[in-house]
Design brief:
Blueprint (H helix, E strand, L loop, with lengths): L2 H9 L6 H5 L3 H4 L13 E7 L10 E4 L18 E7 L10 E8 L10 E4 L1 H7 L6 E5 L10 H6 L3 E6 L5 E9 L5 H12 L2 E7 L4 H8 L23 E7 L9 E4 L4 H17 L9 E3 L13 H4 L8 E5 L1 H6 L1 H13 L2
Parallel strand pairs: 1-5, 2-4, 8-9, 8-10, 10-13, 11-12
Antiparallel strand pairs: 1-6, 2-5, 3-4, 3-6, 7-9, 11-13
Length: 345
């Protein structure tokens, strides 16, 4: 298959449904997965500033205990230690107006006599653009389950999960795909289409990439596997893990950063495979620089990050962080090089 034909195939990934990728119906494949989202489920709450507002993450929400338990007049429980949606305003408003992801928790040290209350950090308030005392609607799901393609999710500025598991002990991840960091989701799918690897991607959208990240981006150390219908059905660990990530054009001197906690020999092999693409193929920009880094803002250097957490025996995975130019112009070539290298193991 030529590169042009491969590009055409992969450009159409967004038209494939989750059940198509899996080769069976969602019901058959996800028998023990979280239930499909019931879009009418919600709880309302008042937002307050956490007592220690500079400690908690921007994507963490602390719940009063009544919100995690159903009652006669409130049938919806908010799942604890899961990711949920938080909408500015009440349920009478368009629920897609301001959807965001948070990690839902309860904390006994908070003032539990305050019912129907959620607490956010300063950074959380910045993220959702609300004030203490405002009302929010909590929806106990992540992806809405009603989209079959990227185009449908993009038309609603929403988010789509695509997952494929085949028993292989290698997985490619893209937790910030879609408009968050363009083409990283497609890169993860190259591992499935050409390497027969498992893959999992989130395609999040907004009017701009900045808005898409503000709505949907979750730090990789806070990605909770069981919050997603497809992801929850994949293995809980893999021998080889690779995550495709993005950064801004001016964020780093290099164009591509190879990180993660995998053995240095593996990181060097992946970096060399990428470098060979740009040094040996006519028509590619041979000025694209590739570096290996062990620590830093654009390196998955924490065992809690999904790149490393999903690796068996805490062996560590590999992260590929790329500038907009690389993701726009060379996303396929990078993904193919990485796939070929992993396929050789």
């Amino acid at each position: 298959m030529t590169n042009i034909n491969r590009r055409s195939l992969l450009a159409g990934v967004g038209t494939l449904s989750l059940s198509t990728l899996a080769g069976c119906s969602a019901t058959e494949y996800f028998q023990d997965a979280p239930e499909e989202a019931n879009l009418s489920d919600y709880r309302t709450a008042t937002v307050e500033l956490a007592p220690n507002p500079d400690i908690h993450s921007a994507t963490e929400i602390i719940l009063s205990s009544d919100l995690t338990n159903s009652s006669d007049d409130e049938e919806t429980s908010i799942p604890v230690d899961q990711q949920i949606r938080v909408q500015k305003g009440t349920q009478n408003e368009n629920w897609r107006t301001d959807p965001f992801f948070f990690t839902a928790k309860t904390n006994s040290s908070y003032s539990q006599e305050q019912t129907q209350t959620v607490w956010l950090s300063n950074r959380g308030f910045d993220r959702v653009d609300i004030e203490p005392g405002d009302m929010v609607t909590l929806r106990p799901f992540t992806t809405s389950g009603q989209f079959d393609s990227r185009d449908q999710a993009e038309s609603q500025n929403d988010i789509l999960e695509q997952s494929f598991g085949n028993g292989n002990q290698t997985i490619f991840l893209a937790p910030h795909g879609g408009k968050m960091y363009t083409n990283t989701g497609r890169q993860a799918f190259v591992g499935t289409s050409e390497g027969d690897f498992s893959s999992w991607s989130l395609y999040g959208y907004g009017d701009t990439s900045t808005e898409a990240r503000r709505r949907w981006q979750i730090p990789t150390d806070e990605v909770i596997q069981n919050s997603y219908l497809g992801f929850s059905q994949l293995n809980s660990s893999f021998e080889e893990v690779c995550t495709f990530l993005g950064m801004g054009q001016e964020d780093h001197d290099a164009d591509i950063i190879v990180g993660g906690l995998a053995p240095m020999s593996d990181r060097k092999a992946v970096a060399s495979a990428i470098e060979e693409v740009f040094s040996g193929e006519e028509g590619l920009d041979n000025s694209i620089s590739v570096v290996i880094e062990s620590t830093g803002d654009f390196v998955e250097d924490d065992p809690a990050q999904i790149t490393n957490r999903l690796s068996s025996g805490n062996r560590g995975g590999i992260s590929i962080t790329q500038t907009p130019e690389v993701r726009r112009e060379y996303w396929y070539e990078v993904a193919q090089a990485v796939t070929s290298e992993f396929d050789s193991y």
